Every structure is written in structure tokens, then in C-alpha cells.
Amino acid sequence: MHTTDAASGALGGAIDVHAHFVTSTLRTAMRDAGVEHPDGMPAIPEWSPQSALRLMDGTGVRAALLSVSSPGVHFGDDGAAVRLARSVNDEGAALVAEHPGRFGLMASLPLPDVAAAVSEAERALGELGADGIILLTQYAGRHLGDPVYEPLMAVLNERAAVVCLHPTSPVCWEATAMGYPRPMLEFPFETTRAVTNLILGGTVDRYPRISFVVPHAGAALPVLADRIAAFAMMRQGAAAVDAISSLRRLYFDVAGFSSPRALPALLGLTDDEHTLYGSDFPFTPDWVVEALAADLAASKVLTPPQMRRVRDENAVRLFPRFGPAL
Known about the structure:
Elements: E1 14-20, H1 24-32, H2 49-59, E2 61-67, H3 78-98, E3 103-107, H4 114-126, E4 132-136, E5 138-139, E6 142-143, H5 150-158, E7 162-166, H6 173-176, H7 182-200, H8 203-206, E8 211-214, H9 221-234, H10 243-248, E9 251-253, H11 262-269, E10 275-276, H12 286-298, H13 304-318
Helix pairs in contact: 3-4, 4-5, 9-11
GO molecular function: 6-methylsalicylate decarboxylase activity; hydrolase activity; metal ion binding
Keywords: Hydrolase, Lyase, Metal-binding, Zinc
Protein name: 6-methylsalicylate decarboxylase
């Protein structure tokens, strides 16, 4: 068992709800599918449990919830996606068992095959004991909130699942990305589209036991929330939705570049009891994660009690098995 000195790092025992893992099985599947530059990034990043734990100890993270990042596990073949989802979820569960208290698992699903996704969600949350589910913002052009996902949402609601959202490239990225890596501009707007659809389509209201975690300091939502709320009230032929209240029920991680501007904007939309730490490692390189962790720890935006809530107390409410920091 790996021992930790995470409490001595900059963040003093944080829980990272936005951390990724790349197993050899996943890497091989991506390369076999021709995904050498996921979402326009330079390469598939290197990852190992040892590198993750070293970074966690250095930055003061006592536990990290591992998930597969974009483009997920579906590369065009439904059957292959089912097998790959099972494989990475099994590997994730093994990592959790090997490093108790240090890793958690947000399980991947073989969407857009909804029936297979329901089956794998039940297996992962039941048999494997996964801590939650990771969902991309859209699959085959259908954003979360589309009625096609209703059977899956019903199961996740029944299990009171924590669902972390993660952006992926939109189907029209060739026309909109302007040649830049999609995480720069497309990812924030994909997150904003998906969350808007979840709210305006009523998913958040119909399934109140699902705890949705929105990445990257809410993407564009802190800036667009009032605009979305106004249009939600003006829609003809649809029930009025209180978009601001729905947004305030969600959780938000601060992975990525939340300092110095995004975090204050986020706290204008939500509160410190719905804000969580995230690193986005290894798609955010270790040296950048270290700098961002130091910036967050030194931030004057959060009071010490607020920092404790963001650092780990809010995450413990979602993932009680990690308990309070010692």
C-alpha cells in the first residue's frame, strides 16, 4: 500500500474529482482506431499509477477519482466499445483495490449504445463498486439531455449516482475549431451546451438524485447563465424552467485555468459548497498542475473555511468513503 504525505503539499489533503488514467489497453485501442492526437492534442499523454501518486503527494492530493477522458471508449464499433468499457472499468477497479484510499473510479460507459450503457453502469456501480460515472457531453451528435438517454438517467437516479461530465469534440469541430486543439475553445462550449440541455430539457429536475459535476469552473456557464435563464422563461410551448436554481444544484470542479478570472465568476453563480478541486492530469501536464495547485492554495478569493470545503469537504459529501482529512 502506498503511503502518502499529501497533507504537506500545497493543497493539504485535497480530493481530486477530475483526474484521468490511460491504461495500456486504452492506449492500444486508441492507436488502433487512429486516435494518436485526441481532440487535436499533440499526443496521448503518458500515465502510470506511480506518476499520478508522485504528483498527488507533491501537490497535496490525498485521493483522486480516475476517469477516461475524451474521446472515451467508442471508436465506431459498438461491440468493441462494450469490451473496452468493461476492460478499463475492470482495470480502474483493480487500481482502486491496489491503492486503497488513494484512487477512486468514475466508470466509463459504451455510449451511444444506451442499452449496453445501462448494463455497464449497473455492473460498474454494483459489482465493481465504482464511485460514480463519467459521461461525455455528447455521443454521435446527441448532447446529454436528449430523450434518448432517459433509460440511463433513470438508472443513475435510482442509484443516486455521482456523474462527472467531460467535454469532447463537437461533430462540427472541423468548421469551428479554426485549427486549434479543441480543448481550447470547443470544450468549454460543449460543456455549456450539454449542461444547458440537461437543464432546459428537464433532466436535472426529473432526476434529482443524480449529482452532476460540471468541469472546468463551469466553462462558459457563469457568463451565460442569466442569458440562458431569460431564454428559458421565454420559450413558447415549453414549461418554464428556473435555470439559475437548477444550475445552483450542480457541482463544479476547478480543473484547468480557474485563476485568476474563472473562479470569481464561478462563485458568482454557485457557492463554495458546490465547488470541488480538479487537476485534469495527465492531459494537463504535471508541471502545470503543480503551478495551478500553488495558485489555488495562495488565492485570496477563498477564505480558509471556503478553501477547506473546496479542497475536500464537499467531495467527501459526494464520496463518503474517503472520509475527512486526517
